[in-house]
Amino acid sequence: MKKEIIIKHLGFVLMLNGLFMFISFLISLFLDETSTLPLLYSALLCGIFGVFPLIFVERTENINFNEGLTIVVFGWIITSIAGMLPYIMWGGEFTLINAWFESVSGFTTTGSTILNNIEILPKGLLFWRSSTHWIGGIGIILFVLLILPQAQGSRISIYNTEISSLSKLNFRFKARKIVHVLAIVYISLTLLETTMLTFFGMSFFDAVNHSFATIATGGFSTKNLSIAEFNNLGIEITIMIFMVLSGIHFGLIYGTVMLKKENIFKSSLVKSFIIVMFIGILLVAFKLYLSGYYNWWQSLRYAAFQVISLGSTTGFATQDTANWPIFTQMILIYFTIQCAMTGSTSGGLKFDRVYIFFKSVGKQIKMLKHPKGIFVTKLDDKRIDEKLEQQTLVFVVLYIFTFFMTTFILTALDIDGMTAFSASIATIGNVGPGFQGVSSLGNFANIPDLGKFVLTINMLLGRLEIFNILALIMIKK
Q1: pLDDT for residue 411 is more than 90
Q2: What CA–CA distances, in Å, run from 310 to 21, 346, 435?
Q3: How far is Cα 163 from Cα 196, in angstroms, rounded to an integer?
Q4: How far is CA 450 from CA 84, 101, 420, 421, 446, in A?
């Protein structure tokens, strides 16, 4: 393994962080805020440590899979460590573990927070906090691939570890083209949502920050009450539309705009995803209405927002779901596990895997009835390779096992069952809020430090989809 090329790429990662820190510094400088120097020092540190490998390490044309895997995994770890710097230097509620938690939560687009008072943060620091979402949403490594004039072999090695096999089913381009497609859709959705949120009355600063969080399906808000602070139906509908779009495979969105054969309207996966989410909204709305929480239209409004928010792993809130009936909480927990589609910025188990799982169950039943029959699993008329199908089933089991083990550890720290269970699911799914002590309008401040650290490991496992971490450990052995 060529360590020098790994160090070189990690240098690019630090440089990218430094760039966004510098933009945040300029905002803070313009507004004469207390975060000006912390952001400047952080940007300089990232710039200095990032530029050294670029100067002293020679360019390498080819990167093998093991090197690509190491760059991806350590890229996420290094960027999370770098992201702590502005928080630690600024102080406030940011202890060492709290800064680590907020940084990892930002970059993995989880959106869980330890902050009791978000609005006390200077705008420069708030912008950096939202920027971690936007960088992490498309993927820090894909950002690097976008700007680097790398050799094709190097790009493919890194790209293959950053994008799951399922995601590639709806892409019909080469690696470089896919990165460009992702960037075009990502930036276009961000600009469009920012414009619409501004139109409906949100300040430009808040619109940019909330667009960063929506398109990345992250959930960091500039307000303590999240989207509930605005109490604006136009803003809520806009955010719901973009949460759904951000949960759909970006290749299909690109195909729709470019009038290609593979598009949103012809995808059975997208149709199924929308139908399942619609059923979830109706079930939650009916229960809220019948339980006397709100009138019918309020029930539908709040149910739609919360189901879409958790189902897309964004995590914004318009109501405190901790006070809702347990039936509605169970439905929301299901969507926290299932989440949206591969090829999007969504985290979680992914709807595609759930879809394949039930298709595989049907296939097994057919095989029991017809032992000599030959059956295949298909996804939008594409045959799913048996290896990919098996990998999907193993991933589902491993995913469930992971959040149960995390729950076990948290309960050992004397955290109540619902808080521990929902926090475990919310962090490995990169969703953000859970229930009880970590509800939609709450935070993770009261979780013990060891529990916070465990949950950050969960976030990284969820963002890297577990297998990459395990593969790296096996490489090291």
Answers
A1: yes
A2: 29, 10, 12
A3: 30
A4: 17, 11, 13, 16, 11
Q: Is the per-residue pLDDT at 439 higher than 60? A: yes
**C-alpha to C-alpha distance for 314 and 321, rounded to whole angstroms:** 15
Structure tokens at 34: 């207390």
Q: Extract the tokens encoding 339.
A: 């989440």
Check if the beta carbon of residue 14 is closer than 8 Å to that of residue 78. Answer: yes
Task: Judge contact between 238 and 214, C-beta under 8 A.
Answer: no
Q: Reduced to 3 states, what is the DSSP secondary structure of residue 31? A: coil
Q: Is the sign of the CA dihedral 313, 315, 317, 321 positive or negative?
A: positive
pLDDT value, residue 1: 66
Query: Could you tell me the CA-to-CA distances from 41 to 18, 132, 297 in Å, in that order?
Result: 10, 17, 50
Q: Which tens digits make up the pLDDT trace of 310-330? A: 999 999 999 999 889 999 999
- Dihedral pair phi/psi, residue 368, rounded to 5°: -70, -40
139-145 long-range contacts (CB < 8 A, ≥24 apart) are: 140/13, 140/16, 140/75, 140/76, 140/79, 140/107, 141/13, 141/71, 141/72, 141/75, 141/76, 142/179, 142/182, 142/183, 143/16, 144/9, 144/12, 144/13, 144/16, 144/75, 145/175, 145/176, 145/179
Residue 320's CB is within 10 A of a number of other CB atoms, namely 16
The span from the CA of 313 to the CA of 300, in Å, is: 20
Of the candidates 114, 97, 52, the one whose C-alpha atom is nearest the C-alpha of residue 442 is 114
Contacts of 32 (CB under 8 A, 6+ apart): none
Identify the weakest region by mean pLDDT among 213-227, 228-242, 346-360, 410-424.
346-360
- Please state the domain extents for the chain: 1-162
Q: Which two tokens stand for residue 317?
A: 């809130």
Q: What is the pLDDT of residues 102-130, one digit of tens each?
A: 999 999 999 999 999 999 999 999 999 99
Token pair 């953000």 in the structure block, residue: 432
Half-sphere exposure in the Cβ direction for 394 (13 Å, CA): 9
Q: Is 176 helix (H, G, I), strand (E, B) or coil?
A: helix
Take residue 123 and report the two structure tokens written for it. 């705008």
Q: Does an H or E element contain 113, and which? A: none
Whole-number Cα distances in Å, 154 to 6, 60, 140: 11, 9, 16
Nearest CA to 447 out of 427, 475, 471 is that of: 427
Q: What pLDDT, on a 0 to 100 scale, did the predictor assign at position 159?
A: 44
Residue 321 is classified by DSSP as G
User: CA triplet 185, 357, 109: central angle to 5 degrees?
Assistant: 35
| CB-count exposure of residue 90 (10 Å: 0-12, 13-18, 19+) | buried
